[in-house]
Amino acid sequence: MATINENYLKLKAGYLFPEIARRVRVFLEENPDTSSRLIRCGIGDVTEPLPQAAIQAMKAATDELGNRETFRGYGPEQGYDFLREAIAANDYQARGIEISADEIFISDGSKCDAANILDIFGADNRIAISDPVYPVYVDTNVMAGHTGPADESGAYAGLKYLPCTPENGFVAEPPDEPVDIAYLCFPNNPTGAVATREQLQKWVDYARANRTILFFDAAYGDYISDPAIPRSIYEIEGARECAIEFRSFSKNGGFTGVRCALTVVPQTVQGYTKDGEAVALHPLWLRRSTTKFNGVSYPVQRAAEALYSDEGKAEVQALIAHYMGNARILREAAQQCGLQVWGGVHAPYIWIQAPGGLSSWEVFDRMLNEANVVITPGSGFGRRGEGFFRVSAFNSRANVEEVARRLSSMNW
Ligand SMILES: *Cc1c(COP(=O)(O)O)cnc(C)c1O
Q1: Closest CA to 224 of 194, 244, 264
Q2: How far is the CA of 187 from the centre of ligand 1 (A)?
Q3: Nearest atom in ligand 1 to 112's CA
Q4: φ, ψ dihedrals at 160, nearest 5°
Q5: How far apart are alpha carbons 259 and 303 in whole angstroms?
Q6: Tell me, what's the pLDDT at 13?
Q7: 126-178, pLDDT tens digit by residue?
Q8: Which amino acids bring their CB within 6 angstroms of ligand 1?
Q9: Pocket perturbation via mutation, ligand 1, pick of 87, 111, 223 by most ligand atoms within 8 A of CB
Q10: Regarding beta strands 388-392 and 349-353, do their DSSP bridges make them parallel or antiparallel, or are they unpaired?
Q11: What's the 58 CA to ligand 1 centre distance in angstroms?
């Protein structure tokens, strides 16, 4: 008899995006004539075509693979040096941050990395997660058996939830008790919040005092336009001793369908055995990567490298400028309706308070029925997301302008 991982049975059945898809399907079945009017501002996926620099590099790399002289088979599991060096030089060293190429691991996505990193940690860690949050952090801990069951509100026993509210500007302070692992994501999905240098320094100081490891998700780092706001946790003094950083080419280079990301594990970051003996995490993650992964495809790594060429950088900047222009239009339209709005300044997400005490799903249904616009209900990101909704700026300009018009014409 093959038994199953019963932790999977603890997962809440109605995962956010399938439920959104279901409601949209029902709506379209009942209102087939609206299907061409429907605008999706729900799921956080990019819409604009890939940068030409990436396309050319991918094509050239594919041609190399088609030629006996330049053919390549398996590459290094942790990524090709050409890409790791381009990342170290451009994302870190050029900004005065001490991260070297051998501390960078290339992967096919930050979602997988944020999940897989749990492989090298023990089962008994106390884990802090902000609420609302990117659901992947919670569900992967449930699957790994790090929690008890969920209560009626969807909160899992054993996790330390850090409320993110208008009062704290959606940036949680470190808890007043020790935790072993804490997830931070700035700029934040879903709230669009960013953390200041001082706020991040508090987290790093807390982590060093409590031997906590910070998982810092910087998937939206390139959306920060204010140089005073850190794009990387390693801009903070002491972070090399306590932080693992996840970055992705999904949201800056539009690689959601291409798949390439990276994880930084500094040589100086340590965990502990049960007996309190310090163990460097870098060799563990290297061992994990070389055993369970065979690397990202060569053409994709060349495409990612090309994002660091002059042409590539300009194209990435243009993509971000496009989405942030959208974000501004959406933010201003929502504000003009008298709605309470956060985010959308250093992140492609607008986080809006549901007016008149409506629940997140009630706003979802109103937006779908009255404006034919799909948004994401905040409650899907956690209990504290209830009463809010997220509007994604990943769209064409024409769609965003139309969404702004429809928002304004609704009777809020
Ligand atoms: C989109 C996103 C990522 C990127 O995931 P990939 O697997 O690299 O596409 C990571 N973290 C957050 C919070 C995201 O929204």
Answers
A1: 194
A2: 12
A3: 7
A4: -95, 105
A5: 10
A6: 64
A7: 999 999 999 999 999 999 999 999 998 889 999 999 999 999 999 999 999 99
A8: 44, 109-111, 134, 185, 189, 217, 219, 248, 250-251, 256, 261
A9: 111
A10: antiparallel
A11: 22
Architecture of domain 13-49+311-409: Alpha-Beta Complex (3.90)
Retrieve residue 251's tokens.
């949201």
343 contacts: CB under 8 Å, gap ≥ 6: 187, 188, 191, 192, 193, 327, 331, 349, 350, 351
Q: Tell me: the pLDDT tens digits for 375-411?
A: 999 999 999 999 999 999 999 999 999 999 999 999 8
Query: Do 404 and 329 form a contact (C-beta atoms < 8 A)?
Result: yes
Q: For domain 54-308, say whether CATH 1.10.260.40 is its number.
A: no
The best mutation among 185, 194, 250 to test binding of ligand 1, ranked by most ligand atoms within 8 Å of the C-beta, falls on 250
Q: What is the DSSP letter of 40?
A: E
Closest CA to 231 of 303, 328, 166, 320: 320
- At 14 the three-state DSSP class reads coil
Residue 171 CA to ligand 1 center (angstroms) comes to 19
pTM here?
Answer: 0.97
Q: How far apart are CA 309 and CA 179, in angstroms?
A: 41
Q: Identify the DSSP state of 191.
A: T
What token pair was written down for 287?
């061992």
Q: What's the 69 CA to ligand 1 centre distance in angstroms? A: 36
Instruction: Show me where the domains of the chain are located.
Output: 13-49+311-409, 54-308
Beta carbons of 207 and 178 less than 8 angstroms apart: no
Using only C-alpha atoms, the chain has a radius of gyration, in whole angstroms, of 22
